[in-house]
Write a structure and sequence with these properties.
CATH superfamily: STAS domain
Largest sheet: 4 strands, mixed
Structural class: alpha/beta
Oligomer: single chain
Number of helices: 3
Distance between the termini: 39 Å
Strand order of the largest sheet: 1-2-3-4
CATH class: Alpha Beta
Shape: globular
Number of strands: 4
CATH architecture: 2-Layer Sandwich
Amino acid sequence: MTLRIERPYGKGGSRIRLSGELRSDRVGDVRAEIDRSEPGLTLDLDEVDLVDIAAVRFLNACELQGLQVANCSPYIREWMLQERLREENSTMS
């Protein structure tokens, strides 16, 4: 499975919808789409079914930069939280 990147048009501001597998080899493609976007961007992960650690770190970085990461599955959200906590603990030691 690959990653599909879509920009649906309509109300609700700037949105990028991702479908499929978000892995390290596609993070650059998503970053390029983000760079072409206006402020207030939302990444919609409703149809993302698989991520790797690079993608989780990328999503955390996106949130730190003020992007909204929406509709991600509970396992992705939990992994993002665990990775953030791990990074915070490693910087405190």
